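Q: Got a minute? One more chain.
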Amino acid sequence: MRIWIDLSNSPHVPFFKALAAEFERRGHTIEWTARDYAQTVELARNAGIDAPVFGAHGGGNVFAKAAKFVARVASLAKWARTRKIDLVVVHNSQEPLIVARILGIDSVNLMDYEHHPGNHLSFRTAKRLIVPASFPAEALAKFGAAGAKVKRFDGLKEDVYLAGFAPDEAFPAKLKELDVNADDILVVVRPHAPEALYNRGFENDLLDLVLDRFAAIDKVKIILLPRKDYQGAALRTRHPKPNIIIPAKAFDGANLLAAADLVMSGGGTMNREAAALGVPTATIFTGKPAAIDEYLIKQGRMTKIVSADDVIALKVVKKSAAEPRRETQMLTIVADLILNTEATTR
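A: Always. Here it is, folded:
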C-alpha cells in the first residue's frame, strides 16, 4: 500500500517514524506531509523526514483557526489527488481525514485524549479509530464512535517508539554545551499549549511556581521547552534566573528525558514519554485529566500537581536507576491494528 502519514504536532514525529519503519519493513510505501506548528518541521528534518509542509496553526483566534483549517484541507486535497494513496494514518490530524473522505481513501485515526473538542470531527470522519484501552467508552459514544470502527490496545502510544530505547552515549556532551553537567540535577519543563482548543484563554499559574521554586535550589538546572517563541520570551522575562535554560534548537526528546532527574509538563505526551522511560514525572496539566494519565498515576509512574503545596512537597533530587515500561510488543500490535491485521492484537 501507499500510506499517507501527516505530522501536525511535534509528538507525531517519533511516533510515526517508528510506525513508518515498520510499515516499510512490511513492504509498504510512505508519503509524508507536515504542518508548521511548534517544533514539528524541525524535528521531522532532524529525523530524516523530508515532508512537504502544508499550512500552519491558526493561533488562539477561532476564526483564524477555521480559515487555516479550510486552506490546509484544500492544499492537501490538491496534493493527494496525484499520489494514488491507499490509506491515511494520523493522530487526530483532522484535515487529512476530511481529504480522505472527499477522495474516498481509507483512513485511520489514533487518539489518546478524550476531552479534545476536535474529537467530534475526527472521530466521525475517520473510517477506523484506534485508542488506548483506558479510553472511556462513554467518550467514544459522545464523539460518535462505536462498534467495529473502534480498536483498542493495552498500553501507551509512547510505548510504540520508546520500548526499545537506549540512550545515546554522546548525549551528555550536548548537555554540557548548555552548561548542564553530570552532577547537576536536571529538570525538564514543558509549558502548556496556549493555543490548543482545550487551553484557549488559559494560563497555568503552577508553571510560575514550579520555575521559581526549582530555580532557587542549588545545583538544579532547568531546561525549559516552550511551545512557541512568544511563550519562551514571556517566560524568560518573568524568570530570568541563569539556571533556567531555553535551548536555541530542538533536542532529541527521548535522550533529553532519559537524562533528566525530573520531568514536568503542562501537556500530555512528554510526561507519558518520561513515564514510559521510567523517569520521575509530574503533571501540571490543569485541564480535564486524560484517562491514560490517571492510569499512569495509579501505576505510580506519574505524580499529579494541583496546588502550591504539591509543588513545595515535590522532591527535586538526582534520580535513582530508571525502570522503563519496556512494552516491546506495542509497535507490532499498533501496526497490526492500523493495517487491519489482527493476528497479534489483544
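A: The chain is about 40% helix and 15% strand.
Q: Perfect, thanks.
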